[in-house]
């Protein structure tokens, strides 16, 4: 990330606090304070005009104590090592909080993919795979989509890895298209997991979703699908904010129409219109009078500059690390409930796990079976976090960290330190 904000320090601050509340010594969790492996690579690409451009790429493996490393790859102009390290650590915690047998990893390339042609993107992706090849694989580290990457990019990664191996290896990556070993339900999984988590919370506090007002930041896969599924639960989606501005309709947006428009307009709602719609600034978005805010874009979005103006009583963190430590403090003092990222958005990695298992078994599951099992895992994870939240009188973020850290520390103790 550009600027002075360091997301890895943000992660460490919460980690230290949670470990202290668990009564752990530094010796218990010291291996979680730094990644097991950090790889920085240069990615030369022959561009369409014949010149060669070199991009910076990263792959960080934070922890393999509980299984192979797992985490997405993002293409973004602000990608840097600290961001990728933080995202890898959050993946370790996310996999632990939902109790699937993975550790955490993350990857990225510092690039604005909008400036590259499809062929340039393909060449860059495949060269990046060649550069990180020694540390990835179905038993080692399994990438997935993240910001500005999708099923097509995952298909290129699978192909490049398979060409080096000499045979097709579907299980090297998840989030693939169905025709080459992807899983039913994977595209909707993160948004569905967020909806299920919110419904579990509302059930606990005795509230109905019917008529609740929702504002969504980010209208990619997570934001759009999450908004659609929450509207199906009776919520009213009154605002959607993306990089180009915020569309607001106090009577509720036509989410299906908005999704269709964005799909035809480079995933943007710029220029979208419907009856009763207003265009407001992204700054105004944060202070809207809504029940639930659903940040589903990038990290560091809710911070000391805007947390004080937030009127929502519930923050449902669809993105990774959208709230800074300072933002957290302000919101907690205001009595806002934050349902944390490592729980809220874990649906994606849960169904990625299902995809990996299906690839290893060479046996594909039905979508209703996948959604049923996703529901079970998300419900169980919520109950684990809620139980600690009530027992220890801590925030849901702290409870989620405590659940996850305890599992990772226990795994490391059982395995011991090599040699």
Short overview:
The protein has 419 residues and is an alpha/beta fold.
List keywords for this structure.
419 residues; alpha/beta; seven-stranded mixed beta sheet; five-stranded mixed beta sheet; 14 helices; 17% strand
How would you classify the helix and strand content by structural class?
Answer: alpha/beta
User: Which sequence of SSEs, written as H and E, runs from N to C?
Assistant: HHEEEHEHEHHEHEEHEHEEHEHHHH
Low-confidence stretches: none
Helix content: 40-55%
User: How many whole angstroms does the radius of gyration measure?
Assistant: 21 Å
Total DSSP helices: 14
**Strands in their spatial order, largest beta sheet:** 9-8-7-6-10-11-12
Largest sheet: 7 strands, mixed
Shape: globular
Q: Mean pLDDT, nearest integer?
A: 95
Distance between the termini: 36 Å
Proportion of strand residues: 15-25%
Number of strands: 12
Could you describe the 3D structure shown?
With 419 residues, the protein is of the alpha/beta class. It has 14 helices and twelve strands. The mean pLDDT is 95.
Question: How are the elements arranged and paired?
Answer:
Blueprint: H1 7-21, H2 26-29, E1 37-46, E2 52-63, E3 69-76, H3 81-97, E4 103-110, H4 118-132, E5 141-145, H5 151-165, H6 186-204, E6 213-217, H7 221-232, E7 236-242, E8 245-248, H8 255-264, E9 278-280, H9 282-286, E10 292-295, E11 314-316, H10 325-333, E12 337-339, H11 341-344, H12 347-361, H13 367-392, H14 396-415
Parallel strand pairs: 3-4, 3-5, 6-7, 6-10, 10-11, 11-12
Antiparallel strand pairs: 1-2, 2-4, 7-8, 8-9
Helix pairs in contact: 1-3, 1-14, 3-14, 4-5, 6-7, 6-12, 6-13, 12-13, 13-14
């Amino acid at each position: 990330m550009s600027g002075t904000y360091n997301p890895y320090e943000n992660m460490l601050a919460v980690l230290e606090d949670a470990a202290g509340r668990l009564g752990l010594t530094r010796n218990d969790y010291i291996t979680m304070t730094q990644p097991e492996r950090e790889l920085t690579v240069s990615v030369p690409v022959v561009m369409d005009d014949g010149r060669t451009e070199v991009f910076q790429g990263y792959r960080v493996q934070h922890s393999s104590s509980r299984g192979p490393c797992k985490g997405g790859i993002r293409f973004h102009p602000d990608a840097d090592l600290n961001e990728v390290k933080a995202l890898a650590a959050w993946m370790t915690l996310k996999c632990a909080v939902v109790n699937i047998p993975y550790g955490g990893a993350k990857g990225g390339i510092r690039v604005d993919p909008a400036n590259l042609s499809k062929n340039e993107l393909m060449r860059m992706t495949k060269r990046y795979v060649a550069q990180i090849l020694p540390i990835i694989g179905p038993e080692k580290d399994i990438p997935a989509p993240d910001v500005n990457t999708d099923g097509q990019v995952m298909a290129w990664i699978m192909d490049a890895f398979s060409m080096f191996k000499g045979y097709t290896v579907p299980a090297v990556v998840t989030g693939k298209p169905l025709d080459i070993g992807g899983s039913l339900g994977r595209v909707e999984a993160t948004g569905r997991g967020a909806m299920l988590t919110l419904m579990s919370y509302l059930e606990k506090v005795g509230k109905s979703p019917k008529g609740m007002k929702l504002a969504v930041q980010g209208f990619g896969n997570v934001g759009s699908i999450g908004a659609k599924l929450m509207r199906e639960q009776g919520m009213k989606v009154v605002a959607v904010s993306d990089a180009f501005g915020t569309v607001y309709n106090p009577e509720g947006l036509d989410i299906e129409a908005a999704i269709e428009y964005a799909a035809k307009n480079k995933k943007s709602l710029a220029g979208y219109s419907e009856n009763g719609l207003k265009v407001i600034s992204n700054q105004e978005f944060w202070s809207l009078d809504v029940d639930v805010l659903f940040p589903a874009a990038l990290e560091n979005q809710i911070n000391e500059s805007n947390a004080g103006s937030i009127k929502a009583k519930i923050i449902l963190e669809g993105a990774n690390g959208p709230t800074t430590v300072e933002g957290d403090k302000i919101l907690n003092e205001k009595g806002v409930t934050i349902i944390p990222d490592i729980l809220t958005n874990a649906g994606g990695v849960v169904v990625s796990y299902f995809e990996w298992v299906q690839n290893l078994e060479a046996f594909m599951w039905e979508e209703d079976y996948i959604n049923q099992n996703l529901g079970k895992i998300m419900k169980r994870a919520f109950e684990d976090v809620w139980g600690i939240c009530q027992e220890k009188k801590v925030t849901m973020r702290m409870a989620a960290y405590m659940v996850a850290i305890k599992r990772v520390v226990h795994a490391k103790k059982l395995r011991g330190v090599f040699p």
